[in-house]
Amino acid sequence: SAKFTPLPKMAASIGAVVCRALHSRRHGKFLSIGRGLFSGARCLVAEGETHFGFQTVSETEKGEKVYHVFESVAKKYDIMNDSMSLGIHRLWKDILLHQMNPYPGTQLLDVAGGTGDIAFRFINYVRSQWEHQIRQKLKSHQNLSWQEISKSYQEEELKLPGGSQVVVCDINKEMLKVGKQKAQHLGYSEGLSWVVGNAEELPFNDSKFDVYTIAFGIRNVTHIDQALQEAYRVLKPGGRFLCLEFSQVNNPLFSRLYDLYSFQVIPVLGEIIAGDWKSYQYLVESIRHFPAQEEFKAMIEDAGFLKVEYRNLTSGIVAIHSGFKL
Amino acid sequence: MRGWYGSRTLASVLLCRQPPPSGAGAAAAAAHRRSPGAAARRHASDRQTGQGQPQAFDPALLELLVCPLSKKPLRYEASTNELINKELGIAYPIIDGIPNMIPQAARMIDRKAQDEEPKQT
């Protein structure tokens, strides 16, 4: 079906050039015009209230509103991601996987993983790592008999290499349905599970996972600190927390262009492609309200994670925060 | 990924198994760049058509899942296709093979019915 065909190569490569030109790896405090304008607004919320984009809503309302946003966009989610980010979101997610660098045998929990982008990349990554390992082994053991070689191929057909597993958890069953269909379509079946669950109240026991990822999901959570605490709980000691999320742009000129693009182009694209202006208006507003790199880093440290670092991508449009449970 | 596909044909030749039909294999490789191979897809589709209902719950998940409220293990009830927390008296539904672990979605189990069950068995 048309939904799942890869983005035309030219658009993706243009996106890649832009991305590399603006890629910044520097840490530290960044001030942007956008942040200056909106940080004041964040302080004005009363007890029991929170933000839904630029509206102030009660905390219970936010959960419902977010649910409805994703329920309505679920089927067009992937197409919209490609259009809005010119395919660059694929690069961001690839970079996340490279930073994770999972070995065969890793247990991954992907929260707010809806349509499965991170999960599928994880599976591809561990498989290619395994192939690499096999090739290395074969290179150094040139005298293996044909039977032994074929046996090593036989083992990997039934399960993911090394017993790797990924559980995709999302609060929205529509998003998971789309993800599951995609998985069947693309042929991913082993080592992959789907669970409807709340990031603030995960249905998993303590110390179960090696890696916890949340990509473009944490800004939609009503109580981010609770989600971070749950992440800490379900990770094994030595486990890694990785968060890929929109953040604050560091370059003032680029920030202006980015604001223009966000508020003028994205909701229009939302209306044309998905028939839903409001949801994409919510999207760009929610990005502006999410804490900046340093503040989010402090929140992660508060939950107990150590060696917390972040890395800006595309000049700060997106940041990867990483922490360890030690 | 091309290396992956090539090694699968080699493996099946070595194991004297029937290789995936070349027509289907070539079409699959052309249509899906990231496909792990025709065999995996046939396996998945066999499972789908084999069962009359949408994919059943994977019991391997049971080892991982706990009740989000009490963090206690759950029991899988095949007749109603639910995950039961007996202590709190709630049941989480499983829809299309995906368990719904949101507390608001859980159903309260009638306590009386629960008490009668051990007497009947």
UniProtKB/TrEMBL annotation, chain A:
<keyword id="KW-0949">S-adenosyl-L-methionine</keyword>
<dbReference type="Pfam" id="PF01209">
    <property type="entry name" value="Ubie_methyltran"/>
</dbReference>
<dbReference type="InterPro" id="IPR023576">
    <property type="entry name" value="UbiE/COQ5_MeTrFase_CS"/>
</dbReference>
<keyword id="KW-0831">Ubiquinone biosynthesis</keyword>
<comment type="function">
    <text>Methyltransferase required for the conversion of 2-decaprenyl-6-methoxy-1,4-benzoquinol (DDMQH2) to 2-decaprenyl-3-methyl-6-methoxy-1,4-benzoquinol (DMQH2).</text>
</comment>
<dbReference type="GO" id="GO:0008425">
    <property type="term" value="F:2-methoxy-6-polyprenyl-1,4-benzoquinol methyltransferase activity"/>
</dbReference>
<dbReference type="GO" id="GO:0032259">
    <property type="term" value="P:methylation"/>
</dbReference>
<keyword id="KW-0808">Transferase</keyword>
<protein>
    <submittedName>
        <fullName>Coenzyme Q5, methyltransferase</fullName>
    </submittedName>
</protein>
<dbReference type="InterPro" id="IPR029063">
    <property type="entry name" value="SAM-dependent_MTases_sf"/>
</dbReference>
<comment type="subunit">
    <text>Component of a multi-subunit COQ enzyme complex, composed of at least COQ3, COQ4, COQ5, COQ6, COQ7 and COQ9. Interacts with PYURF; the interaction is direct, stabilizes COQ5 protein and associates PYURF with COQ enzyme complex.</text>
</comment>
<dbReference type="InterPro" id="IPR004033">
    <property type="entry name" value="UbiE/COQ5_MeTrFase"/>
</dbReference>
<keyword id="KW-0489">Methyltransferase</keyword>
UniProtKB/TrEMBL annotation, chain B:
<keyword id="KW-0496">Mitochondrion</keyword>
<feature type="compositionally biased region" description="Basic residues">
    <location>
        <begin position="31"/>
        <end position="44"/>
    </location>
</feature>
<dbReference type="InterPro" id="IPR005651">
    <property type="entry name" value="Trm112-like"/>
</dbReference>
<feature type="region of interest" description="Disordered">
    <location>
        <begin position="20"/>
        <end position="56"/>
    </location>
</feature>
<dbReference type="Pfam" id="PF03966">
    <property type="entry name" value="Trm112p"/>
</dbReference>
<comment type="similarity">
    <text>Belongs to the PREY family.</text>
</comment>
<dbReference type="GO" id="GO:0005739">
    <property type="term" value="C:mitochondrion"/>
</dbReference>
<keyword id="KW-0809">Transit peptide</keyword>
<protein>
    <recommendedName>
        <fullName>Protein preY, mitochondrial</fullName>
    </recommendedName>
</protein>
